[in-house]
Amino acid sequence: MTSPSRPLDRRERTALADLLVELGPDAPTCCEGWDTAHLAAHLVVRDRRPDALVGYGVETLPVGRPLAAWSHTLEDRLRTSTPYPDVVQRVRSGAPSWMPSAWPGVSRLLNSTEFVIHHEDARRAQPGWAPRTLSRADQDEIWRALPVLGRLAARSHPGGLRFRRADTGAERAAGSRSPATTVTGEPLDLLLWAGGRTSVALVDLS
Questions:
Q1: Is 189 exposed, middle or buried (0-12, 13-18, 19+ CB in 10 A)?
Q2: Measured at the alpha carbon of residue 135, what is the angle toward residues 119 and 46, in degrees to the nearest 5?
Q3: How many CB atoms within 10 Å of residue 158?
Q4: Which of 102, 143, 158, 192 has the most C-beta neighbours closer than 10 Å?
């Protein structure tokens, strides 16, 4: 059990590490082609290899494919050379102190949505999963972080998007000034939908 007084990124990291231990290395995830061993290796490489970070940022662009391939090569090397329990322990311990992503403010900025999404990737790929209840403060933090992925999602919706919170009714637009599609749900599910997890995100489209 994690303390609600801890920052969201740290609580989600711990909860995901606990779940990875519980599921073992061969469980499915919502990331196409990845099992839990792939997911754990990805998180460790992201934490500990600065030379992989650029590849994650440009992998959707044609010019970024060689960089993305290098990032995934590092993940495969770690996954095949290191016992799964050791990889998960590195997920749990996080980035080394010399990495900026280990600094609390930077970690919160870079890791909160990353670990929220990947925690759900592992949870919602399992049979019988059920949505969890997050605190209002956590949902608010996710809502504030939504515009980054929201703008990326809007690129594939020429008419633009409007995200609407099911719990408060608050709205924000992404893309066109006159959004053609409204996506309604709790912030966690809006984040998952914007991050491409459309098959497991509990949202309504109108």
A1: buried
A2: 30
A3: 10
A4: 192
CA-wise closest residue to 71 among 50, 82, 55: 55
Please tell me the distance from the alpha carbon of residue 165 to that of residue 185, in angstroms, as a whole number: 5
Helix (H) or strand (E) holding 168: none
* Final residue belonging to a domain, choices 56, 91, 123: 123
Two structure tokens written together for 132: 């969890």
88 shares its domain with 34: yes
Residue with tokens 């997890």: 197
In this prediction, the residues of the chain whose per-residue pLDDT falls under 70 are 1-4, 55-64, 177
Residue 98 in contact with residue 48, Cβ under 8 Å? no
Q: Can you tell me the distance from the alpha carbon of 56 to that of 28, in angstroms, rounded to the nearest whole number?
A: 21
Q: Residue 29 has which token pair? A: 């995830």
Domain that holds residue 23: 8-123
Is 65 within a domain? yes
Q: What is the DSSP letter of 133?
A: P
pTM for the whole thing? 0.91
Sorted by sequence, the CB contacts under 8 Å of residue 63 that are 6+ apart come out as none
pLDDT of 1 reads 40
**Structure tokens, 92:** 């749990």
pLDDT confidence of residue 54: 74
Q: Is residue 130 part of a domain?
A: no
**pLDDT recorded at residue 2:** 41
Specify the DSSP class assigned to residue 162: E
Verify that 81 and 28 share a domain, yes or no: yes
